[in-house]
User: Fold this.
Amino acid sequence: MGNKIHPNSVRLGYIRDWESKWFSLRDMPALIGEDFKIRNLVKQTFRMAAVSWIGIERAGSYLRVNIHTARPGVVIGKKGADIEAIRKKVEDMTARKTFVNVMEIKEPDLDARLVAEAIAMQLEKRISHRRAMRRGMERTMQSGALGIKVMVGGRLNGSEIARREWQREGRVPLHTYCADVDYGTAEAFTTAGLIGVKVWIFKKQLFVKSPKELLQQAKRQVGVPEPAPAPAPAAAEAAAQPAAVPGASDANA
Assistant:
């Protein structure tokens, strides 16, 4: 898998969910293009609002746009003016009744897209790429991640020949499907040219449990006491034998 396949694509339906939730065989090409335009519109409008991803849901003539951001106040605007303006733009574009929800990202340092955008912004401010990578990796590991990998490519530090450099801390198991690996990209527009940033963050590992383990977990959540374990055979035989009466051997003698 490595760098050739999107880490989220192979995990869809297993530990990942789709960002667009709708189904229409007849209008699928048009709706895919519509989703692309909506996401570009939101990204360009709220470029400085730390928007990670945009979820789109469709049901008949209704459309719901879920904006996941680390700065919900910037997206909503003063008295909801900005969110109302983006809602009207989406309605004019799609001719559907639109609802816009803003969802806050509690830990932005564990979001790969936001980490990539933060590194890209530092590169645009002419900060050394190694320093920007190290700073982003330290913040992510301090937030509780199990591993992170960062790759930058382009004319680094204004060099004549483009190259790629990457750093990794912890472990990032890209081939383990039950590993929750987040992936995000960003672009830095520098005076020397365009520099791409890729980030992989390994958050946790989800294990597939057996039906017996799932049943025990459900009982613990409900509060049902677990049955006591059966005694060992040796302990059962010892319990079955009558206890010795003190002084009985002396009386027989």
About this structure: The beta strands are 20-21, 51-59, 62-69, 97-104, 147-154, 163-170, 179-189, 194-205. Helices lie at 28-45, 72-76, 81-94, 112-124, 129-142, 211-222, 233-240, 248-252.
